[in-house]
Design a protein that fits this description.
10 strands; alpha+beta; 31% strand; eight-stranded antiparallel beta sheet; 5 helices; 261 residues; S-adenosylmethionine decarboxylase
Length: 261
């Protein structure tokens, strides 16, 4: 039994459905030498360090109306970062802040092992041809009434996305007041239903997998063709003699990731 978005469920107790949104994105860059590759890593480290990813997670919680319980973060040497945000859909007076471990009124009756946001970053500047990339994996796992899909458009806004993979799975069941099982508390056809049209319009290749009976959905996107100005580490390399060959390598790399990842 599936329920439409505009229906209000009357449950026999706690909403036991688990919903997991996985947002996996790739951003690409063209570098012309070793110094530029090193500079790219420094740029990524400044723009997407653990603290910056935490700020993204906090905004996600605001959008999906989740209450933050606890936050951990870790930067890695030489590259990468990881964060975890524990949350619940309980609305209380307590608010998380950097100086407290838990929100004072939100630590009762919540499933900490099911409601969290984890994020991991993977910068790569080891390609000898100079095609660098940055990957972010963000998983939003929730129980209760929270719908993680509401955060999709913000994730496109928060990151530069050349290739995107979005997976969504609903598991478990809950019951209505009369005892009927509910396997999904929000009806929809495709993940793309939640993506703004102006965002979708930026992508030329789209793959959409909808297995509604199994509560599994996946969307893959690859950005439309752009000129080298979008990808160059140094704008003054626009007239570099290798720019055309680098753009071909970039396109091959993006297509490979889109098709095989």
């Amino acid at each position: 039994m599936n329920i439409r978005n505009d229906e209000k469920l009357k449950l026999s107790g706690f909403n036991n459905l688990t919903k997991v949104l996985s947002f996996n994105l790739y951003d690409f860059c063209i570098t012309m030498n070793k110094d530029q590759r090193h500079e790219y890593i420094q740029y990524i480290d400044e723009k997407y360090n653990a603290q910056k990813i935490i700020e993204v997670s906090q905004k996600i919680c605001e959008i999906i109306e989740a209450n933050i319980l606890n936050i951990t973060k870790q930067d890695y040497d030489p590259v990468g970062a990881s964060t975890m945000t524990l949350m619940s859909d309980i609305k209380g007076d307590g608010k998380w802040d950097a100086h407290s471990t838990f929100a004072p009124t939100a630590q009762v009756s919540c499933h900490l092992d099911k409601s969290h946001i984890t994020a991991h970053t993977y910068p790569d500047a080891s390609d000898p041809e100079g095609i660098c990339s940055f990957r972010v994996d963000i998983d939003i796992a929730t129980c209760g009434e929270i719908i993680p899909l509401k955060a999709i458009n913000y994730l496109f806004e928060a990151f530069e996305c050349d290739v995107v993979f979005i997976d969504y799975v609903v598991r478990g069941f809950t019951r209505t007041e009369d005892g009927k099982k509910i396997y999904n508390d929000h009806y929809f056809n495709s993940i793309q239903d939640f993506i703004e049209p102006e965002v979708l319009d930026q992508y030329q290749y789209r793959s959409d997998l909808n297995m509604g009976r199994e509560n599994i959905w996946q969307t893959k996107l690859m950005v439309k063709s752009f000129g080298p100005e979008r990808y160059l580490m140094k704008k003054e390399d626009m007239n570099h003699p290798e720019i055309d060959s680098k753009m071909l390598l970039l396109n091959e790399e993006m297509r490979e990731v889109f098709q095989l990842s």
